[in-house]
């Protein structure tokens, strides 16, 4: 995730972190705070540094274990930038131009304001993946095209220079709860949401979380059932409650079907506040000792550098880049 906000939101937690926590139990998992990707838009330097620590702290507080998984900051492993440049030279302009996320974001910003970094973002993402010999890349459907580009780049490189890269498989994360904006339940919860009342931040105070949930958009018929098409606001509240309590959707609907929206919102608020409390407290504890947090990230970067440097050396050798004497 990019460190582009003070806090992660509930959509990040449901759509990514929960799945990552499970995957680290069965895989040799690599997690990265992608601060270099954040530079595709203008950043305040002090704020970027602060948010990078906050994002890493929330990874850990949510359940990512830096002792069993590899957790690091992208810019701490210079091989990411080095390999990205090399991959730029084997990626065609046409391939990069077809990336739909670049098209969408450049249209919003205006082509004159879109940076070259935004254009080559998927190629840096390919470097992030290929450096660590990833077999599996778990992503949402919106990232499938970028991972397919990664696979194409890796396959082309291997064909041209020999078997250097592991060509990763794309795993579309299924079963992840989709959390929608509380004020606009037709749109996914996002840090760029139109109203701050629509976003549940993991680090929000309990009173703020409660206020946002109790002011969530519902509808007028007062019936409680899971029907995302006809009742998107109510369905979103039911999803939040199911996720926060660990109860199935059927159990959740059955428990609250006979009540009103006020009772449902109260239950959602209580459950979300209870879920976020230990995450918020652990995050604050980690941020209170930035030196120790930095040491955790340094250990992760050292571990990541070991793998990344080996991959980069293979790439450089295969392409005929002269090794530095003594290295």
Unreliable runs, pLDDT <50, ≥5 residues? Answer: none
Order of helices and strands: HEHHEHHHHHEHEHHHHH
State the helix count: 14
Radius of gyration: 21 Å
- Please outline the major beta sheet: 2 strands, parallel
Strand content: under 5%
Q: Give the total of beta strands.
A: 4
Gross morphology is globular
Describe the model.
With 327 residues, the protein is mainly alpha-helical. Helix content is 55%, strand content 5%. The protein has 14 helices and four strands. It has helices at residues 10-23, 35-38, 45-62, 79-88, 93-97, 100-109, 116-119, 121-130, 144-161, 206-214, 232-245, 249-256, 261-287, 290-319; strands spanning 30-33, 70-73, 136-139, 169-172. Strands 1-2 form a two-stranded parallel sheet. It has a two-stranded parallel ribbon with strand order 3-4. Helix 4 (79-88) packs parallel to helix 14. It is globular, with a radius of gyration of 21 Å. The model has no long low-confidence stretch (mean pLDDT 93).
Task: List the main descriptive attributes of the protein structure presented here.
single chain, 327 residues, mainly alpha, two-stranded parallel ribbon, 14 helices, 55% helix, 5% strand
What is the structure about, briefly put?
The chain has 327 residues and is mainly alpha-helical. Helices cover 55% and strands 5% of the residues.
């Amino acid at each position: 995730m990019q460190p582009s906000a003070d806090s992660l939101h509930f959509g990040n937690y449901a759509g990514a972190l929960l799945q990552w926590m499970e995957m680290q139990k069965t895989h040799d998992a690599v997690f990265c705070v992608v601060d270099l990707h954040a530079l595709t838009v203008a950043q305040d330097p002090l704020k970027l540094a602060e948010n990078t620590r906050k994002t890493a702290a929330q990874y850990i507080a949510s359940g990512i274990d830096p002792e069993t998984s590899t957790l690091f900051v992208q810019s701490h492993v210079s091989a990411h930038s080095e390999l990205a440049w090399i991959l730029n030279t084997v990626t065609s302009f046409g391939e990069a131009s077809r990336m739909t996320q670049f098209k969408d974001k450049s249209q919003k910003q205006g082509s004159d304001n879109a940076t070259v970094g935004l254009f080559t973002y998927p190629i840096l993402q390919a470097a992030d993946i290929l450096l660590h010999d990833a077999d599996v890349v778990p992503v949402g459907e919106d990232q499938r095209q970028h991972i397919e580009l990664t696979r194409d780049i890796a396959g082309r490189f291997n064909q041209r220079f020999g078997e250097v890269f592991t060509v990763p498989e794309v795993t579309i994360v299924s079963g992840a709860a989709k959390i929608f904006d509380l004020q606009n339940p037709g749109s996914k919860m996002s840090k760029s949401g139109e109203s701050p009342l629509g976003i549940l931040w993991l680090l929000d105070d309990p009173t703020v979380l409660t206020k946002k949930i109790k002011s969530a958009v519902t509808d007028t018929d007062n019936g409680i059932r899971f029907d995302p098409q006809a009742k998107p606001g109510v369905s979103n509240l039911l999803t939040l409650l199911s996720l926060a309590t660990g109860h199935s959707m059927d159990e959740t609907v059955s428990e609250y079907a006979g009540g009103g929206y006020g009772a449902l919102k109260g239950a959602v608020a209580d459950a979300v506040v209870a879920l976020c409390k230990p995450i918020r407290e652990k995050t604050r504890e980690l941020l209170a000792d930035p030196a120790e947090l930095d040491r955790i990230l340094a250990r992760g970067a050292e571990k990541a550098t070991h793998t990344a440097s080996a991959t980069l050396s293979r790439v450089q050798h295969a392409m005929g880049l002269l090794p530095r004497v003594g290295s």
